């Protein structure tokens, strides 16, 4: 590609830029963002080749635009870019929810929504900002695309090829499937971890409790160290799917509470053993996928 | 000490033995256990100096006996050892619950219960058995003792000194306090992690869900890889405290469900932010405790 635009040059956008450069997949990368300090840092680190505050300059001759700003910004950013969107440009994003992003893109782009290919790279780190960006962040990780009926094949392929150049493996789901899946395996666990830490921190003897929390608690609650603003936005954006998963989980806990109250050890053990077995199978599948020869 | 007896030479008992030997704190260690294979392995690894199936042989002249078998075995094991319990011997344990262990000890030892000092080392690994034992397992970790009113000071001190020789830091709580604390920071998180994995594994599209589960899910559910039998026993042994913590958590989730259903982003963000802040403070406190100079 000749020109790529990254809107939001933090961990996600910055790592995409570094990986494309490393792969030799792009000639020039333009950064856009709200914070002059972040843009200056991204320039200094060599993540972007130039920075601009002008959507008109940014969009001129762009092959691909990646939105890597908070999901709630998708609509306003697309509205600013839309007047300068050329026919040959494809826009994609890196948001953790997809139905709301699609709705925002339809509202902002109207009949040109076919130029927007929604995406979600499944990768991250605990640190943020351009200094956290890594050229290797996406190697071996999945990127889920949720193409629209309006997307021309060649635009979907351009986005897919960019992520493949970063080392990612492309999966495709509908936006609805995507949001249901991530409500279960990501958004609900985040809510549950935040809930536990807040529950404990709000008790009068919280200090005593934290004193005895150990490595199991640390791992269980690691995701409660994530950005509250970002997870507020994700929770609201994927509210309906998340409510569905939360209700299923509440029913599960209520059933286990009854087993415990009845001292029904056999029933509890069945739940625990089924969970242990399923988790073990999952971990084995991951390890075999990483090292395909290990199972031979 | 001249002679220490370890009942159950797996990860916990074996690591205690290796650490005492490394510290030069004991002359002879005797292993007892149900499995001849495990005992042979513990002998071969040099964890114990001898192994016996005879409680009479084991207890003769013993300074200290550590019970490191599953908690539900505490009563039967003490009943077998009691006839041979000499006046100078102290018995301790490594169980994850304490009120039930104290009750079992009172039933088995009667008026000699003063010779039983309940304990709980806060350390572990994902692997089990004598091969997993490490001389360094307890270094810098807490061991909680929950002494009884009947315990003579010198017997409590003998147990405390043994754990200190292993590198552990001694804390003292009542058995009731201990069980309430660990219901909140350990037993509840285990139940919650098992609940989530079983919930997801029971869905018709479980395969699709596990395919997209990533590192956040992996850490959140790591403790669902623990032994179902062990956690069934712990759940039942600490049932009342665990029910109390589970009810508080269910109330917290129900309240957060209402925030989500009302799209009350500000309320959700307050919970998330409070949790993030509390977890960050806890992690900082741990890191400062590990490296006391780092805060200067």
What are the secondary-structure elements of chain A, in order, as H or E? EHEHEHEHEHEEEHEHHHHHH
**Number of extended strands of chain A:** 9
CATH superfamily placement of the largest domain in chain A? NAD(P)-binding Rossmann-like Domain
Tally of structural domains of chain A = 2
Given the C-alpha coordinates, what overall shape of chain A results? Answer: elongated
Content of β-strand of chain A: 5-15%
CATH class of the largest domain in chain A: Alpha Beta
Range of helix content of chain A: 40-55%
Q: Determine the structural class of chain A based on helices, strands and strand pairing.
A: alpha/beta
Q: Please identify the oligomeric state.
A: homodimer
The neighbouring-strand order within the major sheet of chain A is: 3-2-1-4-5-6
Radius of gyration of chain A, CA atoms, in whole angstroms: 22 Å
How many alpha or pi helices of chain A? Answer: 12
Largest sheet of chain A: 6 strands, parallel
Q: Ends of chain A: how far apart?
A: 40 Å
Largest interface: A-B, 87 and 87 residues
Instruction: Provide the low-confidence segments of chain A as ranges.
Output: none
CATH architecture of the largest domain in chain A: 3-Layer(aba) Sandwich
Could you tell me the CATH topology label of the largest domain in chain A.
Rossmann fold
């Amino acid at each position: 590609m000749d020109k790529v635009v990254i809107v939001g040059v933090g961990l996600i956008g910055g790592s995409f830029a570094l990986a494309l450069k490393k792969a030799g997949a792009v000639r020039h990368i333009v950064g856009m963002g709200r914070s002059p300090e972040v843009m200056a840092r991204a320039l200094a680190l060599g993540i972007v080749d130039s920075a601009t505050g002008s959507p008109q300059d940014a969009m001129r001759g762009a092959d691909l635009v990646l939105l890597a700003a908070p999901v709630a910004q998708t609509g306003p950013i697309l509205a600013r870019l839309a007047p300068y969107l050329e026919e040959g440009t494809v826009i994609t994003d890196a948001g953790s929810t997809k139905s709301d992003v699609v709705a925002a893109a339809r509202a902002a782009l109207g009949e040109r929504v076919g130029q927007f290919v929604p995406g979600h790279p499944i990768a991250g780190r605990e640190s943020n900002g351009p200094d956290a960006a890594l050229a290797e962040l996406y190697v071996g990780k999945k990127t889920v695309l949720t193409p629209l009926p309006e997307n021309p094949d060649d635009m979907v392929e351009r986005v897919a090829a960019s992520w493949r150049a970063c080392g990612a493996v492309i999966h495709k789901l509908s936006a609805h499937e995507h949001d249901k899946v991530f409500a279960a395996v990501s958004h609900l666990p985040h809510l549950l971890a935040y809930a536990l830490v807040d529950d404990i921190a709000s008790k009068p003897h919280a200090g005593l409790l934290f004193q005895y929390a150990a490595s199991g608690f640390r791992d269980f609650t690691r995701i409660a160290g994530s950005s509250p603003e970002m997870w507020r936005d994700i929770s609201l954006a994927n509210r309906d799917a998340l409510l569905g998963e939360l209700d299923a989980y509440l029913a599960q806990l209520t059933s286990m509470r009854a087993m415990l109250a009845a001292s029904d050890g056999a029933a509890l053990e069945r739940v625990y053993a089924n969970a242990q077995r399923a988790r073990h199978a999952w971990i084995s599948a991951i390890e075999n996928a990483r090292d395909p020869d290990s199972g031979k």
